[in-house]
């Protein structure tokens, strides 16, 4: 059995984390107000209903595609969350961490259909034996 690729691990774990975070976030704030109107949740992040929907949506997709399109998911979520971390409101550190990990997972996973070439074992050439007479 092959070990899971970095992208598959990211899609599974980050997807599950974002899904749970989005659902729990609705218990703290379920109001669809402006994007800047955020409420503290879990003592470490700021949420509102818009971010909760984003987390549920991106998390559910990650869990669903972890086995088939994990590299593409990691790349897309990585770019989205890095942009959110740099330019968006909310918990910038969370968005940056998820984004950078997604980009790293996508970079660490080979493209489908392009498996890394296996090294051929080098054939040791036998040296001719010389008579020392």
Task: Summarize the structure in words.
The chain has about 130 residues and is mainly α. It has one domain (about 5-105). It has four helices and two strands, in the order αββααα. It has helices spanning about 5-30, 50-65, 70-85, 90-105; strands at about 40, 45.
Q: What is the quaternary state of this protein?
A: single chain
The chain-level mean pLDDT equals 88
User: What distance separates the N and C termini?
Assistant: 56 Å
Number of domains: 1
Q: What shape does the CA trace take?
A: elongated
Q: Name the beta content range.
A: under 5%
Reading the helices and strands in chain order gives: HEEHHH
Radius of gyration: 23 Å
Main sheet characteristics? 2 strands, antiparallel
Helical content stands at: 55-70%
The number of E-state strands comes to 2
**In order across it, which strands form the biggest sheet?**
1-2
Ranges where pLDDT stays below 50 over 5 or more residues in a row are none
- Structural class of the secondary structure composition? mainly alpha
Number of helices: 4
Main traits of this protein?
elongated; 133 residues; mainly alpha; single chain; 2 strands; two-stranded antiparallel ribbon
Summarize this entry quickly:
The protein has 133 residues and is mostly helical.
Layout of secondary structure:
Blueprint: H1 6-28, E1 39-41, E2 45-47, H2 49-65, H3 70-87, H4 92-107
Antiparallel strand pairs: 1-2
Helix pairs in contact: 1-2, 1-3, 1-4, 2-3, 3-4
């Amino acid at each position: 059995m092959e070990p899971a690729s970095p992208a598959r691990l990211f899609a599974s774990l980050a997807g599950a984390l974002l899904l749970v975070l989005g659902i729990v976030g609705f218990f703290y704030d379920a109001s669809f107000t402006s994007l800047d109107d955020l409420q503290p949740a879990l003592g470490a992040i700021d949420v509102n209903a818009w971010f909760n929907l984003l987390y549920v949506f991106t998390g559910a997709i990650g869990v669903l595609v972890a086995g088939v399109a994990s590299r593409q998911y990691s790349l897309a979520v990585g770019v989205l969350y890095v942009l959110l971390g740099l330019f968006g409101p909310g918990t910038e550190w969370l968005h940056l961490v998820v984004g950078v990990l997604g980009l790293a997972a996508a970079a660490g996973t080979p493209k489908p259909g392009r498996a890394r070439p296996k090294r051929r074992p080098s054939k040791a050439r036998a040296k001719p034996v010389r008579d020392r007479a």
